[in-house]
Amino acid sequence: MPHIKVGVRSGVYEVDAILFDKDGTLLDFIYTWGKWSERLLASCSSAFGWNEAKVEEIERLIGIRRSGADGRIDDYDRNGPLAMGTVDDLLTIAAVEGYRFSGCSWAAAMVVAMNAKAEADALLEEERTARLLPHVLPFLERCRDAGLKLAVVTADETAAAERHLEWLGIRSLFDACVGTDAVANGKPFPDMALLACSLLGVEPSRAAVIGDTNGDMLMARAAGAAVSIGIAQAARETSTAPLPAADVAVRSFAELAVAR
């Protein structure tokens, strides 16, 4: 029977499947979504006439964090809209701020936001801006060798998620990919986890969920998953403090083991 072992003290869980969040769990979140959000906000700023202070305000609102002398994006709020929300959520925020700041109509504001999204999407497509986090690929390969079924459950749209996995050459490792557009309710509701388990042919109680936000952990709990494992990269020790709804938390996939 396949099982997953977490760290040296957190226990062993017998599971038939693992459901993975994508961004911030498998993929480097800032590398992809930092660039995407910069292009989105630059396009909106040009159209709406936002000043520098306004752009900084919106970056803080959606959860972008900059530090250092070069002012580059180097972190994000795991509880913010950029990390936990959908693309539609981000477009709504941009449109609201454009409507408030520029005085244009709501319809015009949404057109600007949608056009900005198209530009940001095109940038990612052109440059294939995605890279795996450390230790991810060896862990996925060990999961397949152990006979585990694997799925991605992401707040991203399904087609975009499929493309990102293809760019990285790991789509074939997953039996299913479920985006937020495939269900009625996204995270933290259980819909994506339940649909993924149905597609995999496993009971939710026989599936582990691995993610980097508390929304992932709450989804796992609501779905009745066997265990929710948080990737708390910023944590100095193995602790669920950054992800209070997680059953256990680790710093990276190097702390996880799988076997039959």
Q: How do the helices and strands line up, and which of them pair or pack?
A:
Blueprint: E1 3-6, E2 12-14, E3 17-20, H1 29-48, H2 52-62, E4 64-66, E5 73-76, H3 81-84, H4 87-102, H5 106-127, H6 136-145, E6 149-154, H7 158-167, E7 176-179, H8 191-200, E8 207-211, H9 214-223, E9 227-231, E10 248-250, E11 256-259
Parallel strand pairs: 3-6, 3-8, 6-7, 8-9, 9-10
Antiparallel strand pairs: 1-2, 1-11, 4-5
How would you sum up this structure, described in words?
- This protein has 260 residues and is an alpha/beta fold.
- The chain folds into 2 domains: 156 residues, 3-Layer(aba) Sandwich (Rossmann fold); 98 residues, no CATH class.
- 43% of the residues lie in helices and 17% in strands.
- It contains 9 helices and 11 strands.
- Helix 9 links the parallel strand 8 and strand 9.
- Helix 1 runs parallel beside helix 4, helix 1 packs antiparallel against helix 5 and helix 4 crosses helix 5.
- The longest helix has 22 residues.
- About 2% of the residues have low confidence.
